[in-house]
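Thread amino acids onto this structure.
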């Protein structure tokens, strides 16, 4: 066999109507093949064997060119297969396991977030250059992106390897392998085509890869910082304990309480620190740290004061004073049958008020005036003329308790006071519940006459200040003073409220002594907490859990499918494609300018596989029922195969090439076509 020199080969020109130099074809082991024009002139039937767009019989057109039998076997060449890093077991199985672990971990984190009311974060942004909103969206996204990227990389390899896996099994059609590019059509196209070809591994891989595109927006929305109440524990100093103040006789505490009660009516003030309704608690210190809407709960001591006010048994009577012609009297009877009469001068003012001793029993009368029951009285002239009076009877009491007090850290006001559960009774010895007071409550209004003019002035101020505050509250109501007098219990409600406040304020000063003790405290304040949003969090966890579960089984199956596949180099490159097809022979059926439809049409009658001995791509003729083919193709195929009307062939291109090279069966110099004479 003659060989062409490189110069001769380069000088050879291929023109339309010329033939391929026989010497070069001999060198390549390929018979001389005429070009389209001349072949049609010499043999019209060759139009069925070559040319773009022709329906070619694959049995004859490439079998003589198959040279895979000349390739050394894989074992002889000691070639090692190519295994991508991403498809190796630690990554292929580790990635879905990591995805599964992240989904489970996210659910655990959301449970802890709900249980602990979020996670602690610095009160101020630790990184001043970026905002907290950016960090909350960026950090979880950074954690999710690597896992999502790995999964898409695995999906890319699953889609790329699918045609080769089918070829390794053998009997693959051109639509499923040679012209099916799962990579270039993208994830959505891969989902559609995999459903069409029933490639379940590709479908689930592409489906889960498409689901990873939702991970980033979900991850960017699961974190948020909210101001939530968070408890913390510490100790504070209690500054008071129950005991009788030594300066009660100065009446400073009472006049101050009466003044605050009067101011509270005028200015609608709330209770001061350590006073709440009828409760007065021991004072304690507050932490110096700044808190947002913070509260502190301590177990301390408190005294509950009750005014025990009630209305009269009958409507008070206004009548003349038998001892003084110019004065008038108000006579009222309590529910206990105590008859009290007070005198006043109606010429002084048309609106008058006051408080009087309401003791009736011998025990009450024998007690000091500061501990006796009292009666508030109120008088005014009606709008239409006539006199009208109202009275309220009160008998104060005090009870010490161990209490649980909640106070505001911003202004020190008491939010709530409750008796300690299981240990509410105050049992420590003291001179309030014991001698000399023996549990009696100061009425805070009536005092003994004092020669000290300042103390006496305070006594008068207290005695007039508290009923004056009640009368002011009655005048400020929506119905005015006359409306308050017309209601049967209006003065009772106003007296109970104002008098209780006066008694509680007085109790804070007269029933407690200075004494420092360390007590435990629980602080509750609004702190920034990192909270996981439940809706995006659960959806994100569900998607990752789904991808992880599907991915583990998917790549176990895919790994088993790849066991029979041998690829020496990464698939996809032109060189890699040429290495497995250059000796297959059927490539001569194809032209560089053939479109995909033409390529698919030319190769539709073949079945493809990867030769297990060499790893080369070879083609087998598909079983064909000639009765169902087009007439012109029937004639060509039947003529080439001996004229049988309905026969099936399944010859391998590599086997035909081997037989041609070895001389068996005897070489036929001419294949008869329907156009031969």
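Threaded sequence (677 positions):
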């Amino acid at each position: 066999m003659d060989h062409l020199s490189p110069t001769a080969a380069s000088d050879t020109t291929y023109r339309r109507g010329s033939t391929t130099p026989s010497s070069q074809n001999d060198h390549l082991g390929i018979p001389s093949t005429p070009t389209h024009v001349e072949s049609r002139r010499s043999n019209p039937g060759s139009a069925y064997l070559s040319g773009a767009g022709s329906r070619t019989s694959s049995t004859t057109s490439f079998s003589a060119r198959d040279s895979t039998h000349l390739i050394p076997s894989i074992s002889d060449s000691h070639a090692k297969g190519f295994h991508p890093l991403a498809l190796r077991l630690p990554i292929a199985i580790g990635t879905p396991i990591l995805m599964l672990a992240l989904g489970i971990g996210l659910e655990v984190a959301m449970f802890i977030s709900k249980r602990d009311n979020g996670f602690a974060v610095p009160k101020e942004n630790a990184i001043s250059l970026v905002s907290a909103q950016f960090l909350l969206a960026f950090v979880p996204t950074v954690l999710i992106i690597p896992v999502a990227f790995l999964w898409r990389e695995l999906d890319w390899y699953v889609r790329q390897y699918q045609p080769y896996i089918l070829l390794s099994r053998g009997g693959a059609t051109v639509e499923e392998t040679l012209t099916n590019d799962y990579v270039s059509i993208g994830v959505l196209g891969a989902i559609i085509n995999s459903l069409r070809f029933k490639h379940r591994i590709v479908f689930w891989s592409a489906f889960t890869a498409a689901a990873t595109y939702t991970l980033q927006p979900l991850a960017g929305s699961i974190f948020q910082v909210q101001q939530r109440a968070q408890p913390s524990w510490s100790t504070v100093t209690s500054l008071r304990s129950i005991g009788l103040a030594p300066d009660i006789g100065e009446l400073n505490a009472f006049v101050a309480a009466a003044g605050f009660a009067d101011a509270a009516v005028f200015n609608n003030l709330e209770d001061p620190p350590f006073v709440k309704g009828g409760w007065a608690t021991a004072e304690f210190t507050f932490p110096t740290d700044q808190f947002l809407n913070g509260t502190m709960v301590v177990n301390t001591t408190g005294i509950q004061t009750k005014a025990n006010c009630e209305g009269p048994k009958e409507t008070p009577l206004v009548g003349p004073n038998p001892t003084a012609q110019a004065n008038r009297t108000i006579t009222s009877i309590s529910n206990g049958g105590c008859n009290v009469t007070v005198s006043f001068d109606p010429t002084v003012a048309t609106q008058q008020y006051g408080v009087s001793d309401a003791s009736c029993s011998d025990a009450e009368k024998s007690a000091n005036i500061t501990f006796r029951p009292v009666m508030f009285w109120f008088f005014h002239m009606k709008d239409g003329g006539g006199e009208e009076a109202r009275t309220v009877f009160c008998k104060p009491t005090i009870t010490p308790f161990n209490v649980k007090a909640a106070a505001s850290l911003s202004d020190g006001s008491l939010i709530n006071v409750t008796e300690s559960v299981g240990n509410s009774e105050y049992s420590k010895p003291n001179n309030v519940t014991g001698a000399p007071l023996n549990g009696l409550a100061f009425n805070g209004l009536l005092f003994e006459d004092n020669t000290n003019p300042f103390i006496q002035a305070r006594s008068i101020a207290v005695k007039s200040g508290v009923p004056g505050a009640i009368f002011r509250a009655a005048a400020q109501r929506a119905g005015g003073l006359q409306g308050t007098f017309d209601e049967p219990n209006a003065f009772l409600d106003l007296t109970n409220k104002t008098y209780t406040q006066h008694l509680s304020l007085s109790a804070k000063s007269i029933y407690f002594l200075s004494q420092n003790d360390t007590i435990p405290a629980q602080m509750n304040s609004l702190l920034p907490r990192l909270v996981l949003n439940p809706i995006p969090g659960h959806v994100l966890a569900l998607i990752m859990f789904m991808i992880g579960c599907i991915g583990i089984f998917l790549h176990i199956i895919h790994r088993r499918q790849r066991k029979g596949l041998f690829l020496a180099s990464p698939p996809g490159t032109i060189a890699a494609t040429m290495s497995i097809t250059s000796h297959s022979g059927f490539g001569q059926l194809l032209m560089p300018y053939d479109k995909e439809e033409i390529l698919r049409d030319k190769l539709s009658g073949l079945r493809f596989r990867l030769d297990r001995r060499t790893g080369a791509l070879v083609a087998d003729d598909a079983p064909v029922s000639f009765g169902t083919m087009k007439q012109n193709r029937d004639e060509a195929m039947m003529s080439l195969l001996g004229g049988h009307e309905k026969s099936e062939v399944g010859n391998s291109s590599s086997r035909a090439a081997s037989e041609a090279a070895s001389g068996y069966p005897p070489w036929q110099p001419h294949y008869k076509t329907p156009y031969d004479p």
